[in-house]
Amino acid sequence: MIHAYATHEPGQPLQPYRYDPGLLDRDEVEISVDYCGICHSDLSMIDNAWGMTQYPLVPGHEVIGQIAAVGQDVKSLAIGDTVGLGWHAGYCATCDSCLSGHHNLCQNATGSIVGHHGGFADRVRAKANSVFVLPDRLDQQSAGPLFCGGITVFNPLIAFDVKPTDRVAVVGVGGLGHLACQFLNAWGCEVTAFTSTPNKKSMLKKLGVHRIIDSTNSEAIEQVAGQFDFILSTVNVKLDWNRYLGALKPTGRLHIVGGVLEPLDLNAFALIMGQRQVSGSPVGPPTNIRMMLDFCALHKIQPVIETFAMQEVNSALDHLRAGKARYRIVLTNK
Predict the structure, then answer these.
(1) Does residue 198 register a pLDDT over 80?
(2) Extended strands (E) in 52-189
């Protein structure tokens, strides 16, 4: 039996929950969970904000732990390996997306918390092709958020060929943005933060930010018109998107990874006349996840975390809902 925490209705507190996962599939592994990050996506799934939650729901998709069991066809992982698991708990490996290396776009992928029980538990299962050995130099306690929040902001650097000479702005320095700033600084970019809390200058500098702009000051945004090659929006609230389009250089890109539910109100002529682009992306494919882990180990990048015991999961979720997390929360079974 797996001992977990689950919610049975939208927005309700999590309760202790036991379930029998059945026999381990040939291509699966079972992970003994040491740590599991809490992502804003967990809240969205708990609340059924995206309309795809299946209850009972065991959230948790930023898992760090040890391989406890392996299916008979698994050759890439062994019992005792320290591993991470993110948003996907398995890829089909046969569709066009998977065969072209874009596993993160697999329409047949198994979501770790979409019709599948996640990592707010003592154990979790996943296909071996979605589980990654953690580099020795990475801190295990803080590494979990890299497998969702981290790869979400790292993947666009690869997918859209962000160059070390680029001027890049990050909108929102929170759970996603604080990692994006660290990645971009180590990448070699000039990093600007658009933030509603510009008074936290010392922390932003530690995260690798070179310039800080108050995102609540429309005049300040207008003053940087035409300056950025790439703007990465990590927020999940509606903004005046045309102001940020105007801050792009010709051929620049506004890329959105924050789950904004409202439609984007964009000025077509700002796109056309500057040949600008607007795009979005989910998490990244296995090749980019491995690259991100190695990049973090090389440059000593890690999420800034707060920890709660696994049994304090509801207090941790309340802390996140209240906007008090700085910057990621990790549940621990240790």
Answers:
(1) no
(2) 63-70, 82-85, 88-90, 110-111, 123-127, 131-133, 167-171
> The tokens of 259 are what?
């789950």
- Give the helix/strand (H/E) hosting 190: strand 190-195
CATH architecture of the region 2-148+284-332: Alpha-Beta Complex (3.90)
Q: Where in the chain is the domain with CATH 3.90.180.10?
A: 2-148+284-332
CB 15 within 8 Å of CB 5: yes
Which residue is associated with the tokens 């001027």?
167
Within 8 A by CB and 6+ apart from 232, the residues are: 153, 156, 168, 169, 170, 171, 177, 180, 255, 257
Write the pLDDT tens digit of every residue in 171-187: 999 999 999 999 999 99
From-to residues of CATH 3.40.50.720 in the chain: 151-280
Q: What is the phi/psi pair of residue 157, to 5°? A: -65, -35
Indicate the fold that domain 151-280 takes in CATH. Answer: Rossmann fold (3.40.50)
Per-residue confidence band for 200, with pLDDT thresholds at 50, 70 and 90: confident
Tokens, residue 330 = 């990790």
Mean pLDDT of 277-306: 98
Regarding pTM above 0.90, the answer is: yes
Q: Which residues lie across from 194 on neighbouring strands? A: 171, 213
Q: Which amino acid is at 57?
A: L
